[in-house]
Amino acid sequence: MHLLLINGPNLNLLGQRETSIYGSNTLASIEGELQREADEEGVQLDCFQSNFEGALVDRIHQAIGKVDAILINAGAYTHTSVALRDALLGAGIPYVELHLSNTFAREQFRHNSFLADRAVGIVSGFGVMSYHLAFQGLLAHLRQSK
Ligand code: DQA
Question: Which ligand 1 atom is the nearest neighbour of the CA of 79?
Answer without folding.
Answer: 4
